[in-house]
Amino acid sequence: MGTFTWVGIVIVVAIAAFFVGAFVTKKQFKQDELEQQVEQAKHSLEQYRQDVADHLANTGKLVNKMKENYDQLLSHVEETNQLLLEDRNKAPAEPFFSKETTEQLQASLKERSSDRSNADAQPADYVSGKSGLFAGDMNTSKAS
Q1: CB-based contacts of 121: which residues, under 8 Å, 6+ apart?
Q2: CA-CA distance, 100 to 84, in Å (whole number)?
Q3: Which residues contact 97 (CB under 8 A, 6 or more apart)?
Q4: Contact predicate 86/74, CB 8 Å
Q5: Long-range own/partner contacts, residues 10-18 (CB < 8 A, 24 or more apart)
Q6: Which residues are CB-neighbours of 102 under 8 A, at least 6 positions away?
Q7: Phi, psi of 130 (to 5 degrees)
Q8: pLDDT tens-digit map of 21-47
Q9: Which one-letter DSSP state was computed for residue 81?
Q10: Integer Cα distance of 8 and 1 in angstroms
């Protein structure tokens, strides 16, 4: 075989080796890229898990704080209620008006109720008879 044949075989083998190498390299590059994506996805997942764990811990703290505030509020309401009940039991209920005034008001109410039973009676704000400016004689005038 001649030199041209050997040179031709070498060129054909070199071209074949070039394409096989490029194919293998391309496959290796894709595999490396996929491995990077997998690592990035794992890292993102781990970061997400950490964020969720932090959020849940923070939520737990807030719930505990809210529970403490609710307990304080409940305790305050119970103390205030107890104080109000103690004050009620200590001091007897005193009437707003004195005994005499209360009796007079009750008598007045009874009198009004008997007046109201009469349909022809004047309203309570009217005065029976003459009163005020019209109580005196209208003929008297001042002479000077």
Answers
A1: 115
A2: 30
A3: 105
A4: no
A5: none
A6: 95
A7: -90, 145
A8: 878 787 777 888 888 999 999 999 999
A9: H
A10: 11
Looking at residue 96, what is its pLDDT?
74
How far does Cα 139 stand from its chain's mean position?
A: 77
Provide the token pair at 136: 């005196």
| String of DSSP letters for 99-135 | HHHHHHHHHHHHHHHHHHTSTTSPPTTSPSS--GGGG
Query: What residue type is 117 in one-letter code?
Result: S
Q: In the numeric block, which tokens belong to residue 142? A: 């001042």
Taking the C-alpha atoms of residue 88 and residue 29, their distance in angstroms, rounded to an integer, is: 88
pLDDT confidence of residue 142:
54
Q: What is the pLDDT of residues 90-144, one digit of tens each?
A: 666 666 778 888 888 888 888 776 655 666 666 666 666 777 666 666 555 555 4
pLDDT at 144: 45
Q: Distance between CA 67 and CA 47 in Å, rounded? A: 30
How many other β-carbons are positioned within 10 Å of the β-carbon of residue 135? 9
Residue 142 vs residue 60, higher pLDDT = 60
The phi, psi pair for 90, rounded to 5°, reads -70, -55
